[in-house]
Amino acid sequence: MTLVQTQTRPASAHPVQGTVADAMDAAGPQVWEDMTAEVALSVMAAARTGHLVVCDEDGQCTGLVTRARLTAVRDSSGYTDRVRLREIADVIGPFASPLATRAEAERAMRFRRLGALPVVDEHGSALGVLALSR
């Protein structure tokens, strides 16, 4: 999943038109939830991205992890090299539907204080990531 930026807007602006599918990109890295934090940081660096979509053994999206979260976990006093992504993923459902409006997704992300949100199909497979610009 590659990062797709939506434009932030002042409160007085008109709501963003279109669907989540219009504002996301379908290409990018997905990793398994049993991957360690160190390996995930390496994958993230190689992909030059700030987040990774986390999937279970069946390929279903289970969350999203950010570089900031991985770095904070790695730098914590309780860190071991056995920490798995399933233990630290930033987002654990619900996810955005590609049919949701961009305005709905933006409100949900701001309410939950999320910078990025996985977009999944009706089967739970990751289609992309919707991200707010800061």
TrEMBL record:
Cite the entry's keywords alphabetically: CBS domain
List residues of the CBS domain: 24-82
The yes or no answer to whether the keyword Transcription regulation is present is no
By its UniProt entry, which SUPFAM superfamilies does this protein fall under? CBS-domain pair
- The yes or no answer to whether the keyword Iron-sulfur is present is no
Q: Which PROSITE patterns match?
A: CBS
Question: Sorted alphabetically, which InterPro entries does this protein's record hold?
Answer: CBS_dom, CBS_dom_sf, Diverse_CBS-Domain
Q: Which residues form a coiled coil?
A: none
Q: Supply the PANTHER family for this chain.
A: CBS DOMAIN-CONTAINING PROTEIN CBSX3, MITOCHONDRIAL (PTHR43080), REGULATORY PROTEIN (PTHR43080:SF26)
Its recorded name reads CBS domain-containing protein
Gene source species:
Streptomyces griseoloalbus
- Lineage of the native species? Bacteria, Bacillati, Actinomycetota, Actinomycetes, Kitasatosporales
